[in-house]
Design brief:
Elements: H1 7-13, E1 31-36, E2 39-40, H2 49-53, E3 56-58, E4 63-64, E5 69-72, H3 74-77
Antiparallel strand pairs: 1-3, 1-5, 2-4
Length: 92
């Protein structure tokens, strides 16, 4: 992957199909968890602070600054969303 090439584009060139939505960082369809490595993410506006601090990146805009290992797919999205109703019981 070139230093100025988004991870998604490099994967596509290598024949690896990854989920993609907007292709500019405005949605989180391509969100993945960065396990190791460093990336630069210009325009990753769809991630909130909690998601970024938890290690999530947007593959459509993330550009590697080092070798990276990512986790993508359903497993990586488990922690991406917080269900506001989990553990709450309301008597009606």
């Amino acid at each position: 992957v070139g230093a100025d090439e988004p991870i998604y584009q490099a994967a596509l060139k290598a024949g690896v199909q990854l989920p993609i939505g907007c292709d500019y960082g405005g949605c989180i369809t391509c969100a993945a968890k960065l396990i190791t490595g460093k990336v630069r993410q210009p325009g990753a506006s769809a991630l909130n602070r909690r998601q970024s601090q938890a290690g999530y990146i947007l593959l459509c805009v993330a550009r590697p600054k080092s070798d990276c290992v990512i986790e993508e797919g359903v497993e990586s999205h488990d922690e991406l969303y917080v269900n506001p109703f989990t553990g709450k019981t309301t008597k009606i």
